[in-house]
Records
---
Amino acid sequence: MVYAVLIALLLTVSSLGAQQVPNGSFEEWITTEGSGQYKTYEEPAGGWSSGNGAIHIAAGSNPVCEKTTDAHSGSYAAKLVTQKIFGQVASGSLFTGTFQLNLANPAESARRGIPFTEKPTAFTAWYKYAPQQNDSATLYAILSRWDGSKRVAIAEARKKEFSEVQEWTKLTVPFVYYSGEQPDTIAVVFAASAGGEFFKGAEGSTLYVDDVVLVYGSSVQAGDSRTGHTIGDIEEFRNRLGTFSEVVVFDVRGRQVTLVRNTKSIIPDELHPGAYIVQVNSERGLVCRQKILVH
C-alpha cells in the first residue's frame, strides 16, 4: 500500500522586472507576400510563428493563422483555422518560435520557444473556439532550459478545450513547476486541433486567441483553470464520473513515469518513494494536476 502525502502546489514569484510574451495583444503583424497561386499570409510580430510557411510551396492552400478584427480588445486578434495542406490535416496554429518546413519530417518543422528567464505563476489568454466534429483545441505554455545535451521542462501550464466557446472567455492556467531550476526559454502554443502534430483534427476547427499575459506575484494553486480542484477533493469527481479516463504521473524533471487509463485509482500503487506530479483527466479534459510525495 502506498501512502501519499498531498501537497498543494503554491507558486509565488516577484513581479519586479516581470517578462511578458512579446506582442501578446496581437496588434502588430508581419506580411509575407505570395505570388500567383501561392497566397499572401500574415503572422504576429515579436517572435510568433505558425504553419503558414507551408502554403508557399502548396499552391492554393489557405493560411492556418490569420489576422482578424474580431478581437477581445484592441484592433486585432489571431484566428487559427485547421486546413488541409498536401492532403493532410494542418492544425490552425500559433506559437512562439520559428517554422521551417521539413518535408522529410514535417513534425520537426516547428521550432518552439523564445528566450525567457523568469518564473510566472500562471498563463492567461482570452479565447473562443468552434470545433468541427469531435475536435479539441490545446492552449499551453512550457518553461524549459537547455542542459547541454537536451531540453528539460521546468514548468507547464496547459488547457485542452473540447467544447464550443462562443463568447470571448478568459483562460487562466497555473504553472506546475517540476523543478526550481532557472528557465532559458518559453514556448507558448495555441492549436485549433490538439492532434495536429500527428496530422489529426477536423478541417474548419477555429480557435480565436487574444491578450496573452503571464501572471506574477501571487500564489496560484495547481488545478484546473475552471474548477480549481485538487486531489484533496477529488472524491467529487469520482462520484460524478465513476472512472477517470487517464491518470498520468511525471517525475520532477517532467518525464512521464506511468500512464493508467480507465482507472478508479488516483495514486498508482507501483510508485516508488519520491516526489511526483500527478495529472488526472476525465473525458472532458483536465480534472487536476498536483505535486505529491510518496513515502
Note: Residues 95 and 189 are 4 Å apart (CA to CA).
---
Amino acid sequence: MAFTIRPMKMHQIRDFIAVANTGSLRSAARSLNLAQPTLSKSIRQLEEDLGAVLINRSAKGVSLTPSGAAFLVRAELAWHELDRGKNEVNQLSRSGRSTVAIGVSGAPSLIGLADAMRTFRKEMPDVYVRVTTGNFPSVLPELQAGTLDFSIGPRPTFGLGEAFLVSTILKETRVVVCSRKHPLRHAQSLRQLINADWVLTGATGQPMREYERFFSAHGLNAPTPVMQCEYVTALLALLAGNDLLALLPDQWVNSGVTNGLLQKVPIQERATETEICLVHRSASSLTPAARHLLKLLKREFEYHRNRNP
C-alpha cells in the first residue's frame, strides 16, 4: 500500500511560525492581518497534515508541544531558505528588491567594510544590505536559522560539525592598544603594564581565556580587568576617552576610522595571531549578491594585507 504525505501549504508554515513567536493566536492573527478563526483553522489543518498536535491552547495563550518545538526549528529554516530563494530569483532577474545579511566582527569591519560596500552599492543598488556585529556565539543563532548569509570573524572556539563551512580568509595580529594620551603609551615591556586598567574584548566569545593566555605566554599573571566590552563603537569610545588598555587586532590602529585616536603600545613581547574566518551554512549556497559582496570584502582584505605586511 502506498504511503502518502499530505502536502503542507506555505501559509500554514507562515502562520505556525507567527503563533510560535508571539505565543498568542490573537497577536499572531493581528501581525498577519488575518481573522483569528482563519488563523486557528490554518493551524488545525497543519496539525492534521502532520498527524501531531503542535501547540497547547489555553486561556493564557499558547505554548509549543514537544512536536511543535521540533517542527519550529525545521519550519523556520525552510521559511528562510525559501525567502533566500526568492532573493536569488530577484537578483538574477533584477526584479523586486532582494536582501543580503552578514555578520562582521570589529577588525574586519574597520579595514574592509566601508570600501567594499561603496563598490557594492554602485554595482548592485537594488540590494538591501543588513550588517550585524558581535562575537561568534551572538551571530550563530542567525546563521543556524538562515537569516544571515555568512559571517566573518575570529575562528570559532568550538566545533560546528558538518552543518557549516569554515575557511580562513585573513590573519590578524593582536597588539596592546591605548589612547594617544595614555601615560603608558610608550611602555617597552608587558611587565610595565601589569598595574594598568585593562578592558576585555570578546570577539571569540571567550575573552578571559584569550586575555589570560596572552599574559601566561610571557610568564606573567594577568591583571584583573576592570571591565568588558563587546561592541565596536562603545569600545572605541572607552579607549579613546579613558586610560584603558586592550588586547586588539592591529587593524584597530591601522584603520582610517581610528586614525588619531588609538595607538599600539610598543612592548617587546611578541604579539599573538588570530585567524579570521568565513562561516556559512553548508546546506545552502550563497546568493549571487552575497557571493559578490564576499568577493569585494576579500579583495579589500587582500589590499590591506599587502599594504600592511
Note: The longest helix spans residues 66-93.
---
Amino acid sequence: MVLALLFFEPYSRGSCLNQVVETLRSYGVNVTVLKDWSLRALIDVERMEVLYDVVRDVECVSRIAIVHTVISDRSIDNVVDAALSLIRDVFPGVRVLIDVRRWDKSYELTSVEIARRIARAVIQKGVAEPDPHERNNVIIVGIDKDYVYIAYSIEALQKHKASIPLTVVRRVVAIVDRLQTQYEIMDVIQLARAIGFELRLYKPNADEYQRVLKILNIDTPSNVRVLDDLDSVFKGIDIAIALSFYARENEAKLIKILKSSNSRVIGFVLGNEYSDVSEELRSRCNYTIRLGPISGMPMRTATALAYVLGLTLPILAGYT
C-alpha cells in the first residue's frame, strides 16, 4: 500500500476527493481515505502506478505526492532530519524544490523560514542542490496540527497546465502615458504582475503611484518601471504601436504586423483615462491602431491593454 497526499484545484471545494475515489475503484483498485481537508486529502492506495492515471483523468487534481514519512515530533530539527532522509532516499545529488506548506498557522516558524532551514541543511550535507525553479524533483513538507508529512512529487504526478511561454510574454512591453488615478495605476500594475510583461509608466502621478504600492503592500515589481525620459521609454523596442481611439487602422492591420514581427520586441503605447496618447509618444511610434467596434466610448487603459494582449500573445506564440 502507498500513502499519497492529493492536492485539489481551489474550485473543487471538497468534491474532488469523491471523484478520485470513484476513479480508483473504476480501475479495480482498493483505496482508503485517511484524511480529508477539503482541498487536500491523504489516501492509502494499493498500487502507486495508478496515481499517474488519476492526475491524467481527474481534472480537479492539481498534483499528487507520495508520502515518505509521517512524524509526530514537529520540532524543526526533526523536520529537517526527515526531509534530509527523503532526499537521500529519493533525490540524491540532484536539483530539488523544497515546498513547505504550513497548514497549522500556529506553528512557530513560517513556511519560508522552514524551507530555508531545510535548504541550508541540504547544502551543508551536500545531499542535493536546492533550486526554486526545479519542477521535476519536489519535496513537500506539510505541517499539520498533529503531524508533519514529508512527501515528494515528480513531474508525472503533477497536472500539466498548458500556458503561453514566458519567452513570448517578454517580447511585449506596455508603455502607459501619464496615468493619474489610483484605479488606473493599480489595474495596469496588477495586470503586469499577472501576465509578466514589462510595464513602463511614463510620468505617472507620483503620489497616486505610491498610494497604490501601499494599498497593494508591495515594492515596485521587478517588471514595472517608472520613467520620465523618452529615450528610456522606447529603449529596446523594435516595433512601437500606439493604441488610439482615433486611429484609422484596426485589428486587421495589427494582426499583419504581429505575424510578420519575427522575434522582435513589440511595444504598445497607451494613453490614460483623461487623454489619448500624447503627441510626444505618438511621434515615436511606427503604427497607430484602433481596438474594438465603434461604440462611441473608448476603452479604459487596462481594458485596452488586456484586450490587445489577448490578441497578441497567441499570435506571437504561434497558435494562430
Note: The mean pLDDT is 96.
---
Amino acid sequence: MSEEKTASETSQEDLAVSKETRRRAVYPAKDLKSMIEFVAKIYNQLGHTAHISNVAIATLHGLSPESIKQHLSSGQLYKLLELKHGTGYKVTDHFQKLYLPRDENEKRLSVIESLKNPDMYRQLFKDYEYHVVPPDGVKNHFIRSFGFKEEAAVKAAQIFVDNLKDFGLLDQRGVLTSGLPAKPIGATVQDAVPVPDSDTNDSNRNGQENNESQLPARQRFDKLIFQSEIDAAGKKTIPIHLIGDKQAMFVYPDDITEDDIELVKHQVEGILLRIRLEAKKRDQLPKEST
C-alpha cells in the first residue's frame, strides 16, 4: 500500500498538464473541527507566544513527528498555525478568535476566513454561494481545475462539505449561506410568534394566524421575505453590507426585469427620503434645557 500524501499534496502525476494546474496543489487533509481540537491542546499546554518544534507537538499528542505532517500543514492552511522555518510552529491570533470568540458572529466570521484561506476552497465559495453544494460537483471541481484523480478528488470534496456542515454553513436544502448574517433576518419576527407543538389543536393554530395578522405590516413583510429565501425555489439573495456591522438582504426572482429594478430604485429613494425627513423632524424638536 502506498503511503498517503503528506497534507494531501497531490503529486505531479495527479495534476493536469496545463500550465495553470501543473503547480503542486494543496488542500487540507484534516477537517477544521478536528484541527481546532488539535491546536487547542497546543494552546492550552504549550502556550501561544513562542514557536514550538514539531517534535514537541508530536510528543504532546502521543504521536511521531512524521505522523503529524498532515495536521501541521492543515493547520497552516486554516490559519491556525504559522511556521517559522528552522524554529517551529506558533499558534496564531486567528486561532484564538475561533477558540475563544467574543460572540457567535465573530466565531462564524473566523470559521469562514479559515475555510476561504486555501486557494482551492476560495473558488468553491465563489461558485456555490447561495446555491446547493453537490458533493459530486465539488469533486469534479478538483478534477477539472486541478487535475486530481478520482480518489483524491472524492477525499478533498468530502472534507470541504464536512466543514460546511460542521459549522452550519449549509441550510436545510444544502445551500451555502456563508454570506448571510449569523442571525437570519426575520428571526425576531419568528420569535414573536411561537410555533405550536405538534399536538396543538386547530383553534390554537387559528389563534396564531390571527396573532400574526396583527403584526405591523413591515414585520409581516420581513417574515415573508425570510421564508421565501429559505424555502422557495427560483430566488437569489444578495447581502448588502451597511455601515458598521449592519447588513441588509436583497432577495429577487430569477425572472427579474429592468422595469423591476427601476421600481426597486424608486423604493430605495423613498427610504432615503423618509430617513432625511425623520432626521429633519428630530432636529426641529425643542431641545431640553440643561
Note: The beta strands are 81-84, 88-91, 235-241, 247-253.
